[in-house]
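Action item from last meeting closed. Structure (136 res):
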């Protein structure tokens, strides 16, 4: 599976019990990357994709259900228990420090992931968002 996460500079995923991923242009970028492939999300994430014409599977247990090569957008779930299934991780870096409630629990270098692509773009809520793709 291919994970997609939004992180601050300290790998925080949520702050003050709020998502970091509410950025319209980031969601457009994400959907462009996923293309025609299936995207798995939790019910918590569903409001971000309202009105989007896209094959989206919504499930509380989406990380377990997703198959090889399928995309999973993760906002507040622990991912390490599914590490053996992970082929690729796309990180949208916020380039800021927030007081995080939930942190991304995969240590990318330690688990053998290295950066394969990095690009920056302007978001609707942030002047700069960095998108970085990691593979083993």
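Sequence:
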């Amino acid at each position: 599976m291919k994970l997609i996460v939004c992180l601050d500079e300290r790998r925080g995923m949520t702050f003050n019990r709020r998502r970091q991923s509410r950025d319209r242009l980031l969601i457009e970028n994400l959907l462009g990357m996923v293309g025609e492939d299936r995207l798995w999300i939790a019910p918590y994430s569903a409001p971000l994709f309202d009105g989007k014409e896209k094959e989206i599977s919504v499930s509380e247990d989406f990380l377990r259900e997703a198959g090889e090569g399928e995309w999973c957008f993760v906002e507040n779930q622990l991912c390490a228990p599914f590490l053996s299934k992970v082929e690729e991780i796309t990180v949208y870096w916020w380039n800021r420090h927030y007081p995080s409630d939930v942190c991304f629990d995969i240590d990318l270098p330690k688990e053998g992931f290295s950066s394969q692509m990095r690009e920056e773009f302007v978001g609707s809520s942030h002047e700069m968002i960095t998108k970085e793709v990691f593979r083993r």
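Note appended to the action item: The chain has one domain: 2-135.
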